């Protein structure tokens, strides 16, 4: 089982080399990550953005990036369209968000002319390696869907299971986390969690184990689950944390990074190709792990 993000790089190196298309690539941390991925043999790269600025960063930062194609486009929205078009035309396999607003990039991805829409919804999956947990932790959705209903949550689970399965994790355990671990009719998230658990038991959500509502503590701590008398295959051993809304996912993810010293990788799934998406404030290593994660999605 994959337990460290560094393993994603090793796994990606053993796959056929893919081409990444970077929308608005003129940023030093992005270029460092892409250069490292190229030099490791994980990807080939197409960089769309201000060519003069890209070349200046590469020179000033002494970044060795061999064989990259640079497409000059100074307007960020046009750069997004071009980066997406590279995938639509079969010249690239997946997309990476550079120094551009997520909304502008997704608008280009979801344009009917791009033909990259998938059958379901797009959702964001973060993968965390934390010093205090015994395996990788998948968090969804803290970046795409503000207030998902139960049908959205089914699709979000399916997308996260796809990512986990791509890393060789069989039958991932999904904890639908809420503020409490009991069903409360006045708290919609607990009703959704209970419904998702029942749908999983009846085979409507496949390829995973779903339980909820569960608190964050008893989702990741056997001791907390035992203390509260919770008997569950998921409790204390969750692979995927399904959050009730975007705020809780955003806060939890950033808490893992800034308070918990977690390493991370992030990706949007649900389109016909993966979209590497991490915070612009994230490190070059986080971006490298995210590129490796994108390269592993088939």
UniProtKB/TrEMBL annotation:
<keyword id="KW-0012">Acyltransferase</keyword>
<dbReference type="Pfam" id="PF01515">
    <property type="entry name" value="PTA_PTB"/>
</dbReference>
<keyword id="KW-0808">Transferase</keyword>
<dbReference type="GO" id="GO:0050182">
    <property type="term" value="F:phosphate butyryltransferase activity"/>
</dbReference>
<dbReference type="InterPro" id="IPR050500">
    <property type="entry name" value="Phos_Acetyltrans/Butyryltrans"/>
</dbReference>
<dbReference type="InterPro" id="IPR012147">
    <property type="entry name" value="P_Ac_Bu_trans"/>
</dbReference>
<dbReference type="InterPro" id="IPR002505">
    <property type="entry name" value="PTA_PTB"/>
</dbReference>
<dbReference type="GO" id="GO:0008959">
    <property type="term" value="F:phosphate acetyltransferase activity"/>
</dbReference>
<protein>
    <submittedName>
        <fullName>Phosphate butyryltransferase</fullName>
        <ecNumber>2.3.1.19</ecNumber>
        <ecNumber>2.3.1.8</ecNumber>
    </submittedName>
</protein>
<feature type="domain" description="Phosphate acetyl/butaryl transferase">
    <location>
        <begin position="77"/>
        <end position="294"/>
    </location>
</feature>
<comment type="similarity">
    <text>Belongs to the phosphate acetyltransferase and butyryltransferase family.</text>
</comment>
């Amino acid at each position: 089982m994959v337990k460290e993000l560094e393993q994603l790089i090793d796994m990606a190196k053993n796959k056929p080399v893919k081409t990444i298309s970077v929308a608005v690539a003129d940023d030093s941390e992005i270029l460092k990550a892409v250069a490292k991925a190229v030099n490791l043999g994980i990807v080939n790269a197409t960089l769309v953005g201000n060519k003069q600025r890209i070349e200046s960063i590469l020179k000033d930062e002494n970044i060795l990036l061999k064989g990259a194609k640079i497409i000059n486009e100074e307007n960020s929205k046009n750069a997004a369209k071009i980066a997406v078009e590279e995938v639509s035309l079969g010249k690239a396999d997946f997309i990476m968000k550079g120094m551009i607003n997520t909304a502008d990039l997704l608008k280009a991805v979801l344009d009917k002319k791009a033909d990259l829409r998938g059958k379901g919804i797009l959702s964001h999956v973060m993968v965390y390696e934390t010093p205090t947990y015994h395996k990788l932790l998948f968090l969804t959705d803290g970046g795409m869907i503000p207030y998902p209903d139960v049908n959205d949550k089914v699709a979000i689970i399916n997308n996260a299971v796809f990512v986990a399965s791509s890393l060789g994790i069989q039958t991932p355990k999904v904890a639908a986390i809420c503020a409490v671990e009991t069903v409360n009719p006045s708290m919609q998230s607990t009703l959704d969690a209970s419904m998702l658990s029942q749908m999983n038991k009846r085979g409507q959500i496949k390829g995973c184990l779903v339980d909820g509502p569960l608190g964050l503590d008893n989702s990741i701590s056997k001791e907390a689950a035992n203390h509260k008398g919770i008997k569950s295959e998921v409790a204390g051993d969750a692979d995927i944390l399904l959050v009730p809304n975007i705020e809780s996912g955003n806060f939890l993810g950033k808490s893992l990074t800034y308070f918990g010293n977690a390493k991370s990788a992030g990706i949007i799934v649900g389109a016909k190709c993966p979209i590497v998406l991490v915070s612009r404030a994230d490190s070059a290593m986080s971006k490298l792990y995210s590129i490796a994660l994108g390269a592993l999605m088939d």
